Amino acid sequence: MNHYRGMDVTEHRIEVPLDYARPAGEKISVFAREISTDATLPWLLFLQGGPGGKSPRPGSLSGWLAEAVKHFRVLLLDQRGTGLSTPATRKSLPLRGDFAAQARYLEHFRADSIVRDAEALREHLGIDMWSTLGQSYGGFCTLTYLSLFPQSLERCLVTGGLASLDADPRDVYRATYQRMAERNTEYFSWYPQDFEVLGRIYEHVRHGGDEVLPNGQRVTVPLVQMLGMYLGGNSRVHLLHHVFEEAFIDTPGGPRLSDTFLEALYAQSSFAANPLYALMHESIYAQCSATNFAAEAVLPEFPQFTSHAKTPLLTGEMIFRWHFAEDPALRPLEDVARILAEHEHFGPLYDLGVLAENTVPVAAAVYHDDVYVDRDLSLETASRVKGLQAWVTEDFHHDGLGDEGPAIFRRLLAMTNGEDPEAAAKGLSGS
Question: What is the 3-state secondary structure (H, E, C) of 329-347?
């Protein structure tokens, strides 16, 4: 155990089966970091967004975590393949063998396996029951947890993460394109000058600008469109304006994209730090059918997002084939991604019957204008999980937990305790 900045930090590592259907077979390592201020408090498991996102690395108690440790010992799980758990990257995956073998390995990196890893940790730590907090994809994992092991859960809190239980992946991405179109309109109504700058960037790139990112990747129109990842937040959305205002710099050879702009674009577009996000993203919607690059398949239905539009709109959480052909961090995994996209035998992630009879208290923040997890699909899911309380708010976007974490955490916790959520959010109750 280490103690710093007012918190006790304890590291936990266990070995778990790669394939839970073969518990005596190959093992992988799963890591989690415990953050606490009082060892007598009950436990809270944090399920990180993603897929492919490692848990937070807190240097101090702040945000939602500072509030959570008042009520819980918090366990930050590095989901399998991420962080200090056994890694799954372009450097480690080739050790599995050929592309088909690598894809078979990754079939075991979905929510059902992540939840079973969590159960193994719970049993290892001798915990009878615990609560969970799931952000974004962590909410998807929460629904799987509620389906498989509800007896282990005292309560579940979800922020921006109520997955559709059975929607076709293509319909999920249709909703995403629609929300992104609305968000583009909103953003460029605030900063109309940025739309002009975006048009200049596209023209520069299309007509021989010959720009490259710090990793050597050539700048293309679809790559620039990935700046739309800024649009998924409350405050970070305005950071995009600062990216645009420094886009160009004059040089002896004429205007060029500035290093500042190229670095910002690299930060939003490279999958070097989280390749599983790209590899597994569509599989989180796959249940008994192939996804076949669903976001790319429905793109022609939204011509304002196609690269040949005059000024293509900015994209969001979509993965395309070109990512694997052009991103140096993904290029060695191009065939693996294709095999996963064509895989038809991913099993179900949710037990609809169990969810319909749920008895675990669940409170979920549904962000009205969330561009990544569609509001309407989320509310449909909420209606199908017995007892789930949904708080629909226009005050936050997908990053609400990072923006106003303490208030959101207090509100959701109060909802599961039968207390006044408004008072709790303002810090007026003991919840």
Answer: CCHHHHHHHHHHHHCCCCC
395 flagged as catalytic: no
**Longest pairwise C-alpha distance within the chain:** 69
Residues of the chain scoring pLDDT < 50: 429-431
In the block, tokens 């309109």 appear at 185
Encode pLDDT of 398-424 as tens digits: 999 999 999 999 999 999 999 888 887
Check residue 430 and give its pLDDT. Answer: 40
What are the structural domain ranges in the chain?
A: 2-166+350-425, 169-342
Q: Which one from 112, 117, 370, 399 is the annotated catalytic residue?
A: 370
* Strands 73-78, 27-36: pairing kind: antiparallel
Structure tokens at 166: 């059975």
* 182-223 confidence digits (pLDDT tens): 999 999 999 999 999 999 999 999 998 799 999 999 999 999
Q: Environment class of residue 363 by beta-carbon count within 10 Å: exposed (0-12), middle (13-18) or buried (19+)?
A: buried
Report the pLDDT value the prediction gives residue 3, as an integer from 0 to 100: 82
**Candidates 327, 374, 398, 399; catalytic one:** 398
Residue with tokens 């429905």: 298
Give the CA angle between residues 96, 100, 101 to the nearest 5°.
25
- Give residue 208's pLDDT: 82
Task: Specify whether the CB–CB gap between 377 and 384 falls below 8 A.
Answer: no
**Options 85, 131, 136, 378, the catalytic residue:** 136
Which of helix, strand or coil describes residue 155? strand
**51 cis-preceded (ω within 30 degrees of 0):** yes
Give the angle 251-204-181 at the CA atoms, nearest 5°: 130
CA distance 36 to 335: 43
Q: What's the CA gap between 166 and 169, in Å, rounded? A: 9
pLDDT of residue 428: 52
Report the chain's mean pLDDT, rounded to a whole number. Answer: 96
- Selection from 350, 288, 287, 338 nearest residue 144 by Cα: 350
Angstrom distance (rounded) from CA 29 to CA 258: 42
Six-digit token string for 265: 């674009």
269: annotated active-site residue: no
The model's pTM? 0.95
Percent of the chain at pLDDT > 90 equals 92
Domain with residues 2-166+350-425, CATH architecture: 3-Layer(aba) Sandwich (3.40)
